[in-house]
TrEMBL record:
The lineage of its organism: Bacteria, Bacillati, Actinomycetota, Actinomycetes, Propionibacteriales. It is an enzyme of class 2 (transferase). Keywords: Glycosyltransferase, Transferase. Pfam families: PNP_UDP_1. PROSITE patterns: PNP_UDP_1 (PS01232). Its EC number is 2.4.2.3. Coiled coil: none annotated. It comes from Nocardioides pinisoli. GO terms for molecular function: purine-nucleoside phosphorylase activity. InterPro entries: DeoD-type, Nucleoside_phosphorylase_CS, Nucleoside_phosphorylase_d, Nucleoside_phosphorylase_sf. This is Uridine phosphorylase. Residues 16-228 form the Nucleoside phosphorylase domain. It catalyses: uridine + phosphate = alpha-D-ribose 1-phosphate + uracil. Belongs to the PNP/UDP phosphorylase family.
Length: 236
């Protein structure tokens, strides 16, 4: 067991899907994987291991925000020797170019978090996705017939779901940011630190410009396209 994950060594697969919502983790495991077993219920942050098309894979909830996610990712890398992590999250669209339920594949992630500023003494580190996973995800998304629109580009990993200065998002949009979520930037930085692979794929759950939104039940149980893209990119 690690401090926050109740698995024995060897119980977590080298490839992990990482939703923020632990109940999305449960839904993914039950919907997409075979031979599923739950390896952790610590703090209700479920983790499951199963197989997809014969490949071992785990699904671990990360919680909301970079501090929570970083706890699980640090332990997955250092205590369980995980090699690849694909975040399968929800995000808010910040531009008309992106619609609700579209899939956003994050090539890089800006942030307002102090985590990197502390780590790099104020220098702006640029957290980017693993290129192999990114290419695999784009190819998987392109191969889907009749799938939702998908976009590849920058996202913004915010420390605040309810920002004190929402107008700052407008500046990010001018510089190409497509959507906002709360974890990818620190995930990419941790993967670089540990020499592992990471990618964030998010489904748009709500639109900051139009106000359109999905329900919590939809965010938990209906964002399956990004899961199939993630599994194909990481394992096929
Ligand atoms: O749906 P998840 O994966 O949790 O992702 C998004 O949803 C949460 C906010 O509602 C944040 O964690 C944000 O990144
Ligand atoms: O972090 C998030 C996730 C979904 N929608 C948002 O507006 N923010």
């Amino acid at each position: 067991m690690s401090t926050h994950i109740g698995a024995q060594p060897g119980e977590i697969a080298p490839t992990v899907l990482l939703p923020g919502d632990p109940l999305r983790a449960k839904w993914i495991a039950e919907t997409f994987l075979d031979d599923v077993r739950c390896y952790s219920e610590v703090r209700g942050m479920y983790g499951f291991t199963g197989s997809w098309k014969g490949h071992p894979v785990s699904v671990q909830g990360s919680g909301m925000g970079q501090p929570s996610m970083s706890i699980y990712v640090n332990e997955l890398f250092t205590d369980y020797d995980v090699q690849s992590i694909v975040r399968v999250g929800s995000c808010g669209a910040v531009t008309d170019r992106v619609g609700v339920r579209d899939v956003v594949i994050a090539s890089g992630a800006c942030t307002d978090s102090s985590m990197n500023r502390i780590a790099f003494h104020g220098i702006d580190y640029a957290p980017v996705a693993d290129f192999g996973l990114l290419r695999g995800a784009v190819e998987a998304a392109e191969a889907r017939e009749g799938g939702s629109p998908f976009h590849v580009g920058l996202i913004f990993s915010s420390d605040s779901f309810y920002p004190a200065r929402p107008e700052l998002l407008g500046e990010m949009v001018k510089y190409g940011v497509l959507a906002v979520e709360m974890e990818a930037s620190a995930l990419y930085t941790l993967a670089a630190k540990h020499g592992r692979r990471a990618l964030a794929i998010c489904t748009v759950s709500d639109h900051i410009v139009t106000g359109e939104e999905t329900s919590s039940q939809e965010r938990e149980q209906t964002f399956g396209e990004m899961v199939e893209i993630a599994l194909t990119a990481a394992l096929a």
